[in-house]
UniProtKB/TrEMBL annotation:
Residues 1-17 have a biased composition (Low complexity). InterPro entries: HotDog_dom_sf (IPR029069), THEM4/THEM5_acyl-CoA_thioest (IPR052365), Thioestr_dom (IPR006683). Its EC number is 3.1.2.2. It comes from the Bacteria. Residues 1-26 are annotated as: Disordered. It comes from Streptomyces goshikiensis. This is Acyl-coenzyme A thioesterase THEM4. Belongs to the THEM4/THEM5 thioesterase family. Residues 75-135 form the Thioesterase domain. Its main location: membrane. It is found in: Cell projection, Ruffle membrane; Cytoplasm; Membrane. It is a peripheral membrane protein.
Amino acid sequence: MSGRNTALTPPADATAPVRHPDAPAPGELLGAHYEHCFGCGEDQPHGLHLESRAGEGVRVTAEFTVKTAHQGAPGLAHGGVLATALDETLGSLNWLLRVIAVTGRLETDYLRPVPVGTVLYLEAEVTAVAGRKIYSTAVGRIGGPEGPVAVRADALFIEVKVDHFIENGRPEEIRAAMAEPDQVRRARAFEVNP
Ligand SMILES: CCCCC/C=C\C/C=C\C/C=C\C/C=C\CCCC(=O)SCCNC(=O)CCNC(=O)[C@H](O)C(C)(C)COP(=O)(O)OP(=O)(O)OC[C@H]1O[C@@H](n2cnc3c(N)ncnc32)[C@H](O)[C@@H]1OP(=O)(O)O
């Protein structure tokens, strides 16, 4: 094995990301894109209830509190749960670009154990865009927003059309989401994974 996968290195013709003019203002909470989302959904009892906030440029911050339900080893967060928190934070960057995109690749480094009860302070930014490919990176700190880095990730998101969700999602949930009377909530439900 020889280090990072080259699929996460932007190609030579990649460009700097551009914050959409209608992106939420820095400091604004982004809210859940779908109430049943495992990462951010407020009506998802098993979820992480991660809250992301717009930053400057194409950056976001988020906080995730590690609960007893998130354990892998006794008293420590499960690595897959931490990967989910990183994925969700990285996914919320798409809101600032105003594109719909799904995770194609997510590469995670675990640098320090994360005990139950910890608040993980996450920051993510888009580093480059090449056609449908969105390159991004994230860190998760413990002890405070300036604390030591416990986890980090690099990711490649791929832009998709809303049809991606309608064609691939289970009909029951698609119908329920389409029936949502609030237009904004209905649109946001299809921003990420079914
Ligand atoms: C209607 C509303 C409008 C408003 C929208 C506004 C804002 C949206 C904002 C906010 C979102 C908010 C919050 C998000 C929160 C959470 C995030 C969680 C995200 C997830 O948890 S999401 C679930 C897991 N995710 C999947 O469920 C994907 C399954 N997968 C597929 O559905 C396909 O696999 C797909 C679509 C990815 C690609 O398929 P495809 O046929 O469309 O495209 P294709 O294969 O041609 O790839 C095109 C180029 O990407 C390269 N590429 C592709 N995959 C790669 C990989 N893995 N590694 C390296 N490179 C890869 C190719 O090499 C090619 O590169 P090149 O063009 O250079 O050749």
